[in-house]
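User: Hey, my collaborator sent me this sequence without any context and asked if I could get a structure. I don't really work with proteins. Can you help?
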Amino acid sequence: MPAEPTILAFACQCCACTAADAAGALHLEYPTAVRIIRLPCAGRVDSTQIMAALESGADAVMVAGCPEGDCHFVDGNARAAARVRSVQELLNEAGLEPERLSMVHVTARDGAGFARLASEATERAKALGPNPLASDASTGETP
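Assistant: No problem. I've predicted the 3D structure and written it out in structure-token form, which is a compact way to encode the shape of the chain:
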């Protein structure tokens, strides 16, 4: 496993991506292995996308949306949170750690918050160890 685990962040463009940009503008550091996929809204993330990220070898997945009750698309962040809980249940049933998936909320101006959340997701992934599916992703084999 590389020094830092790979974290795939599905991030809403209204708040989470803006917060990540703010972190950069403020020269705040967060792990370089955090890969951001910009979405119009966190509510657009699909369960199959989350599972595909893990099956492709990401050590953890973070879904980042607007603050609870303050979604730019009314209830997109609530839909995303429900999907995350559902996938966490599936991961648990499959014998994988549900902690590999997290739902976070951040305001657009909170660059420090985004950096902290990305670092926390990375530390959680480090504690869990390598994604057991990652070795299978490199060989193309299914577990």
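In plain terms: Residues 47 and 86 are 8 Å apart (CA to CA). You can pass these tokens on to your collaborator as they are.
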